[in-house]
């Protein structure tokens, strides 16, 4: 049976930290589905469809990675894709406390769902989507923080 | 003199984790007043009056627990109810850092006010009101996270 | 029924931070038993009997505080003294993680035992027994950190 | 060469904790520029120009402190003022994780920029701008938390 | 190619928390090698050979789990067993900070080695080997904390 | 007046992380005195005199850095060297909580003494002296973690 993992997030934008986790996740899983949560009522900084394209372009030579938009419970989405794993990166203790809660609830909602954590590589651990938005808003150069061109 | 504690929060919604703290708090205090902060300018997910009813129903057989809406400083509310204690649950280090600040400020505003902490039981430590709202919004089953029916 | 709390620790030495927790604990409990863990095989820096005397002297005018040496499980000791509460201070997140574990295990060993936490007052939060030992060893003045004279 | 540090923040409002860091920073730096981030699209609780005046008044006898409004990247602002240092206070671990990320990104954007941290004095560590706003909104007395009169 | 993971530790003693991680790890890996670090100069509380037997007994019906003693670098041991993964459990933020450091160093020593983290199930998160030793030393009942009989 | 900082530690061994803090500290201070705590009763892994030589060799071309052995309170040593600053690196939240306590106590013992923190560069944040000792003990290659040859 194929080991399929969801890598859920809002990816506003997708960062080199995210890319790091996906690529390292491929050593564990046969397929990684990048699941981009999108709710039409929530505003984003980067256009959702453009971001899907950027991510697809990033992994265009990696068959085992796909990108999907979703607007439902992650635990439900996992069933649709026969994904028994959620893949998540941990950068620091704030992440840990948040992910700890989410993972227990996801397991409660779908007891087949195991959340697997990798610690973000040190060179990417300081990058967050919110910092990139802030830098980009003021015209700063964010090209070192993302794995594609804007 | 009766030992009266306020248990303040926005309770949007009230969770089994909150219930756990109230019930264990009753071993320390003669009365626990569940003080539900409500400000008409702040929007809630669950209706405030309905939530009061749900909480009252939860504790309908527990005389020493009452529910009050308030829209003022917690430190002031405590004086009104002759409450010398605030009761708070701690789930993790993020909670700790937040509660640490709040409790020092409350003590400064009302030097009779002691904040007393219990650590949330492990089975409820992953439950937060915000996660429940997220699950409920997407139609997920939250009945295991709350001590009443919605 | 009297509310009796144990305040367990090795108190090598007892600090102003410990005193802060005991005095504030008296607002919650009718009696606080300072339970000084002592194991003849473990070496201490400050003599155990001398420390008992210093603590007794510190609280000589406070009838509701007593000091006991013990060499057994805290959860068992609590039964002997009809203590249904453990009183503990939290200084920071490192304390929190440690105390979280200990309190769950104590509750497992004695399901009548509730651990109640107060956050150490800011002016005492940096004081630890180990720092005091280090300062004292090098002849530094520790009188501001302890509530008695050495 | 003069050692010039920026002390960036939104200061809504400026607190005694901020004042503590600025004054202690003067032992390290020849000049401290309090850089108040202001974006006309973001709403504030305290008026931005009034707050500038309050801060200027606070340091009116301290020549080496100045106050500037800015609406650009902090790393860019630093270049304008020939500031090679950012001065930041740390109150707790939540601050630490946040500041850790920001400081790495700032250093990436401007490799001449070193972020220097002081730990907030214990008596001010519980004060945050957001708590002050909350207390003030409800008519509570915040005069002990700020170094000027409102 | 088989996915083989080492689960390294001193296991003094092996706990239900460890068992939880091994069993959940089997959903990710084809084989899990429980690698028990043992150094004749370091004293243990539980006999090393007896503990190996207890762990083997715990997993006697699970072919994909084996137990090995080792006294070398974990990163080297992994090469011997063609293990490309280290499996580790995270209970709290203190664990996270420690494991973060170790995992980066292991990856540096063996760049084929990926450390994969699962968060310990809440019911086991408070159990540590050191607490079990403390309880056992004083004759307390530890049977609920370990998956075998002592 | 010269700005002189002590950089205290046991340096068993001195790491690239330590070197990072010293070199970045030189942008703040006119002189950095690496103060190596040494107590003949405490055993070390690396010989104390050899380590002093390694550190001196590391900074042989940097006149503003010196190395001193000491066996007294850091707060007292600072007075001897007219050092008004302690320089410390922060790697993570565990470091933060520890350093927070130490810095308050040092300031209490010597109110002229300000502890200044830099956050360790990400590439060195996982390196600790204790991990290096562990790797070295088992014959692993530690040359990437230290700025000199062993």
Characterize this entry briefly:
The structure is a homohexamer of 150-residue chains. Chain A is an alpha/beta fold and 150 residues long.
Protein model, in words:
- The structure is a homohexamer of 150-residue chains.
- Helix content of chain A is 36%, strand content 21%.
- Chain A has 150 residues and is α/β, with parallel strands linked by helices.
- The first copy, chain A, has a 5-stranded parallel sheet with strand order 3-2-1-4-5, with helices on both faces.
- The N and C termini of chain A lie far apart (38 Å).
- Chain A has a single domain (4-137), classed as 3-Layer(aba) Sandwich (Rossmann fold), CATH 3.40.50.
- The relative contact order of chain A is 0.22.
- The mean pLDDT of chain A is 96.
- The A-E interface holds A 3, 24, 27-28, 84-85, 90, 93, 96-97, 99-100, 103-104, 114-119, 122 and E 3, 24, 27-28, 84-85, 90, 93, 96-97, 99-100, 103-104, 114-119, 122.
Tags for this model:
homohexamer; 150 residues; alpha/beta; Rossmann fold; five-stranded parallel β-sheet; 36% helix; globular
Distance between the termini of chain A: 38 Å
- For the record, the CATH architecture of chain A stands as 3-Layer(aba) Sandwich
Give the oligomeric state of the chains in this entry, treating copies of one chain as homo and distinct chains as hetero: homohexamer
Please, how many domains of chain A?
Answer: 1
Order of helices and strands of chain A: EHEHEHEHEH
Strand order of the largest sheet of chain A: 3-2-1-4-5
Structural class category of chain A? alpha/beta
Q: Describe the biggest sheet of chain A?
A: 5 strands, parallel
CATH topology of chain A: Rossmann fold
> Biggest interface in this structure?
A-E, 21 and 21 residues
What ranges of chain A have pLDDT less than 50 throughout 5 or more consecutive residues? none
Question: What's the overall average pLDDT of chain A, rounded?
Answer: 96
């Amino acid at each position: 049976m194929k080991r399929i993992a969801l890598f859920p997030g809002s990816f506003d934008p997708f960062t080199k930290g995210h890319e790091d986790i996906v690529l390292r996740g491929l050593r564990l899983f046969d397929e990684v589905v990048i699941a981009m949560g999108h709710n039409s009522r929530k505003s984003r900084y980067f256009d959702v469809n453009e971001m899907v394209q950027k991510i697809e372009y990033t992994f265009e030579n990696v068959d085992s990675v796909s990108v999907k938009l979703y607007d439902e419970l992650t635990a439900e989405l996992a069933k649709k894709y026969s994904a028994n794993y959620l893949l998540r990166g941990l950068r620091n203790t704030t992440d840990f406390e948040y992910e700890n809660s989410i993972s227990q609830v996801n397991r409660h909602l779908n007891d087949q769902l195991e959340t697997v954590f990798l610690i973000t590589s040190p060179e990417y651990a300081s990058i967050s989507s919110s910092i990139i938005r802030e830098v980009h808003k003021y015209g700063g150069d964010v090209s070192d923080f993302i794995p594609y061109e804007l």
